[in-house]
Amino acid sequence: MGFPELDDAVSRFRFAQSCLGLLGCLCVCYAVWTPHWLNGRGLWSEWNNTISEESHREAAAVNAVEAERVFGLVSFLIALSTGVLCLVFALWWTSRTVRSYSNTRSLLLAGQALYPSTLLLLTMASTGFFFLFSWSLFTYQHREEIGGDPSGLGASYWLGAVGWVLLLVVETAVFVAERSVVPDILPDLEEAVEAWRISSQLKAAKRAADWSGEMKR
């Protein structure tokens, strides 16, 4: 582990996105597993069904609670992997990583550049989407209680809201800003590969000449 690379716009945007992602993932993980959503209860608390006495409405309420928990658990698992990815890109990834020969050659063969910010956007958006779904279901299920006494909403609920806003809204805005500011790296990669190709040909020709000279002796 070393100091974050902040020498150019690419590295600064990457570090900013990584920090946003890590903070958003921490908020999501905290919200999923803590009970401070509404009146001291959370996703995993047992709630009295006060919606209706009708059996089909009760079944719908149970299904909604199960969906909240499933999407919350999925978002937690994705948040763990996204958080690790954010740490890797923030602390270990450098501009030299993407410009290694093997990476450069494979990227050019695929015809596209490897942008860490794109991978961050995809994983962060997935985390935010699944948690937003869980958060929205919870809000809808308890809309009457929330409307009657909004002060009952706890830290877990609001930190969860901060989490999905960071992962979906703020991250998307930073990604769009990066794409409009940072130039495409493919031309530089093509020049690097061409330089490596010429260098390899010259070395091969030199070895062939040396071998031919030794054979004549």
TrEMBL record:
Keywords per UniProt: Membrane, Transmembrane, Transmembrane helix
Transmembrane segments: 12-33, 70-93, 114-135, 155-177
Keyword Transmembrane helix among record annotations: yes
Official protein name in the record: Uncharacterized protein si:ch211-256a21.4
Species whose genome carries this gene: Betta splendens
